[in-house]
Amino acid sequence: MMIDAMPMSKEKEAVLGRTRPSWLPPKDPNEDKKHWKEYEKMMARSAESERRREAEKMTKSNDRDVTANGLMRIWEDSIIPRWSDAIRERRTRELWWRGVASRSRGVVWSRAIGNELGLTPNSFKAALGRAHDVDSRVKAGKGDAEDIRKEAWLSKIREDVNENTWRDLRIFQVGGPLHQSLVDLLSAYAMYRSDIGYVAGCNTVGALLLLNLPNPSSAFIALANVLNRPLSLGFYASDLGAKASAYNLVLQTLQVKSPGLHEHLTRNIPDADPEVYLNTIFTGLGTSHLAMDECARLWDVYVFEGDALLVRAATAMLLRQEMALLGTRDGDEVRKLVESGPTKNGKVALAGGSGDEEGWMRWLREAGKA
């Protein structure tokens, strides 16, 4: 294509017109004026469309702020002060599905999870102290076989925190504001449950709790109690029966919601073992496969409704990527697709980044409907 290498001079423009390339014969002046006016109108329409888009974006942002402020007042004025009665009311269930105000999450999540284990801040300090002792003995060359086994957990924790915990947020990596807090939280839990140790997936669970609870000790109490729920404990303790039961529930629900996808995953792909593509959903309690705001909304419901919601969430994650999953050819492709999450504006939405929380909640609701 030929273009004018230099801007057209005033003299040349007067002869050729403003809408005619310099290498073509001059255009009729009236036609040139007509085309120039059409061009100006087109540019004006484009500018107006851009202004409308910005106005709509601001309106949506303002609406979200108003909604968030309204929810915060309801939780802080009506729900939290009368907790025992309020959480049994039907309208409150709809409230947690609409989302807990971010400022209220620390109190709400802690109360909803509870503390059946009777842990205290001193429990956290004692467990963390044991982790430091193990580290010191191994570094001094005085560790026994048990110490070396535990040191392997601590090493994996440091690796996962730095390499596999919402890197796009730059909060948990070395030098980030919550790096050491997350390392301490996971190390303390591994020592507290030395029969389990450290399980990959716990890193993003701990990260979510640190972001929403007031301090590491309260995050530790919540983490220990939520991982003591039957389904999560089954996965962390590698209970094959419990895991198989969870996978079967997901596939049974999927068979009802999408027979085609169910058949593809269970018959068309012989090596698509549910363990391959569902395990990390459950060990991460949903946090490993969603954007940060989507995780928070999932947990607004999960802390109240428990294990059944994780099965529902796993089903929703598969349904949300149904068309892409139908194009997979082997189990590894299924795993990679599920772990990568859905695309957003043509790009893969990074776990821990900005997501479409309202869209995600619609999928979650739909997955539970008969």
Automatic annotation (TrEMBL):
Residues 28-62 have a biased composition (Basic and acidic residues). Residues 1-62 are annotated as: Disordered. Coiled coil: none annotated. GO terms for molecular function: GTPase activator activity; small GTPase binding. InterPro entries: Rab-GAP-TBC_dom, Rab-GAP_TBC_sf, Rab_GAP_TBC_domain, SBE2/SBE22_M. SMART domains: TBC. Residues 99-306 form the Rab-GAP TBC domain. This is Rab-GAP TBC domain-containing protein. It comes from Verticillium longisporum (Verticillium dahliae var. longisporum). The lineage of its organism: Eukaryota, Fungi, Dikarya, Ascomycota, Pezizomycotina.
